[in-house]
Write a structure and sequence with these properties.
By secondary structure, the protein is mainly alpha-helical. The chain contains 9 helices and 2 strands. It has a two-stranded antiparallel sheet. The longest helix is centred in the first third of the chain and has 17 residues. It is globular and about 60 Å long. The C terminus is likely disordered.
Length: 196
Amino acid sequence: MGYKEQFIEIYQQNITRSGSQELLDWLSKTDFFTAPASTKFHCACLGGLVQHSVKVYEVMMEKHFDEENDSMESFAICALLHDLCKAQFYKVSSRNVKNETTGAWEKQPYYSVEDVFPYGHGEKSVFLIERFMRLKTSEAMAIRWHMGGFDDTAKSGGFAINLAFDRYPLAVKLHLSDLESTYLREKNTSAINKNK
């Protein structure tokens, strides 16, 4: 089973609130299932975004799920949709790269960013999800702050992230799972032609 099929299975088994099917239908009309997760860092490959989303879910469930206090639906929503902002965000461009063997210049494809809706990162994902489905406050906080200290607002000295992490354990769990998945579990694929 591929990552797209895993994503859809996890989504449909765990996310049942009003609007969830409409959101999944919309996702299928975007490049979410084929987009990379980054331009050159983690999962910078065809289908990298859905791969990353599934991996974050796996880490969250394995490391942080507490049956007494946590919701399967909230975990699935946060893990699978935290990077929804990256749908319709990347495009394939080309650049000249010198072939070290032949010395000739060759056109090579790479991913670049083309953000047609520059609304931020986590907050953009929250906005897009809520066009279809209402989030609980804890879910919105987790998705908004999943970047942790890598978020521009957090870097500028805001205290909102500290309050969010203090009040909403789900936010901490998503952030830690995103970090572990990105830096420890995913293959560092940077060449988009490796998947062809």
